[in-house]
Amino acid sequence: MAGIADFVRPHLRAVRPYVPGKPIAELRRELGVGPDMRIVKLASNENTAGTSPLAKQAILEQLDRLWLYPEDSVFYLKRRLAEDHGVPPEWIVVGNGAVEVIYLLAQALLDPGDKAIMGRPGFMIYPIMAQMYAAEAVQVEHPEHRHDLRAMAAAIDERTKIVWIDNPNNPAGTYLSRREIEWFLGEVDGRAIVVLDEAYHHFVDHPDPCDGLRYVREGVPNVVVLRTFSKIVGLAGLRVGYGVMHPELARVLGSLRVKFSVNALAQAAALAALDDHEHIRRAREQVIAGRRFFEEHTRRLGLSMPPTQGNFAWIDFGRDARPICEALMREGVIVRPGWIFGFPDHARVSISNEDDNRFFFDRLERVLARLG
Ligand SMILES: Cc1ncc(COP(=O)(O)O)c(C=O)c1O
What we know:
The chain is α/β, with parallel strands linked by helices. It has 13 helices and twelve strands. A seven-stranded mixed beta sheet has the order 2-8-7-6-5-3-4, with helices on both faces.
């Protein structure tokens, strides 16, 4: 009999798995510690201001109806998003997290040998998508860990189908202004689908912010905008995100979707969270204050980080950060080591509330003193 791997499509045998942030429960098991040891997870850019209280209420109201399938059309949430964004509901694809929409875009657009362009470092899912469809992931280096739009535009050729732009960039947190994005869209000139992945959009306080939805609304056909409920409203655990795009593309993605991928609790919670202005304001303020705290304390410890517009910091330790990340873990702080993005001297650390942020810098200082 052939080896089991021989049944697998050849280009899939080497797909690198996505490395998620380590869950708190897993670290507890590894360290053999109970709830008395404080563990703070700063590894997945979650919203530590918590879940919107209005969303929690909406979830409770759904509990007696869980024997029913959800509405596969995601009718009410789509209708509301359409009103908020000034586009028809047919232009919106809601997914099991924005990640589902990323998968659908890759599935709909990439043939073997096609190219997908992305920044390096960048969101780790993008190169995996290219591998999955035997396409080429063109990872354009960013000087200063900021997208090099000139180089990205120059990399586009007739095989290019997608340009992924995570704005803010994950993991670096760096940001492209409206002026820069408009220049880029002019250069691309419709030659590829440009995905503006705005997962962290609500945390941005840049003087020239870019709201990619305006281009979709204005009818620029090759722009897709991604948003998520995982970050600003704290619903990462329920999985709901969406893309706004040209209706012809939305129709294709809609036909590829896993049926019922957006569950009933997620639909109800996301809809309610949109009205929770107080929670959104608090979450945003926490992150903006936390960013200042991180900049100040990173500098104090003689380290550096690029200016971030996300709810995370990309800290450059100027030496192999692996032992630092491992030691932090033993001290009860889970961060995302930079080596998984191909940058072993870095770590990505989510920005949390003041108490967690202080805990992180306290433990970091201790670890750095110990490691010398
Ligand atoms: C840039 C970027 N895009 C998309 C996502 C996925 O979001 P979701 O949780 O909605 O799948 C993330 C999550 O971390 C992200 O960092």
